[in-house]
Amino acid sequence: MGKISLMLCLILVFPVVLVNGQKKKDEIRVFELKKGNIASIKFTNWGASIMSLVIPDNQGKLADVVLGYDSAQSYKTDTTNFGRTLGRVANRIGGAKFTLNVPMMGIIHFMVSGAIGFNNVIWKVKSYKPNIKTPSITFSYDSFDGEQEFPGKVTVSVTYGIITELPGYRSTLFVTMRAKAINKATPVNLAHHTYWNLGGHNSGDILSYNVQIFAKHITPVGSDLIPPARLPQ
């Protein structure tokens, strides 16, 4: 399998809301980035989602290594969050409540931002550059004060792109996430939610795969998969 790496970072910016220089509303669309015959990635602005990623293996055979749908409209009824961008908080909040200047209250646990999070809205396209040396696309979303019961306005964006110049790699997919609280303190924890099968999405299961993550720490969870209120030092 050809090497592919994924880079994630969270930084602060103010995104500009444009679609190819013009405002577009309530339109689900498909976009594609290509780098010769090395890589091809399709996206939809519904949830700022990756639909497919076609790359060659170590013998040059092309395969789509992302699980997803052929139609962008199918993502509106999907419940698995294939390829989505999750927020405001892409994790569990015990008891669905927190205190951060303004309390958010609930009686059940809160997971990946509830039923309608950033994953189930139409994002705008801030930038689409398919025909440059490092092709990229940037989606943006303006989250309103009180959305998902979170305080304050937040602007978020996610940029996808392809780099082929890194030594030792045929192609590198990069993902950059940005978020900025506008008028109130609020928790933000974005996540990318693509399902991968490096043998190709139709090659069978991934039960024989081994994953090694070089991490200094992990977040412990209880029997209900909720992190403790205070993490051990």
From TrEMBL:
Biological process (GO), any one: glucose metabolic process
Organism of origin: Papaver somniferum
Signal peptide: 1-21
InterPro entries assigned to the protein according to its UniProt record, in alphabetical order: Aldose_1/G6P_1-epimerase (IPR008183), Gal_mutarotase_sf_dom (IPR011013), GH-type_carb-bd (IPR014718)
UniProt GO molecular function: aldose 1-epimerase activity; carbohydrate binding
Keyword Methyltransferase: no
Protein name in the entry: Aldose 1-epimerase
Pfam families the record matches: Aldose_epim
Domain of life (superkingdom): Eukaryota
Keywords in alphabetical order: Signal
Presence of the UniProt keyword Signal in the record: yes
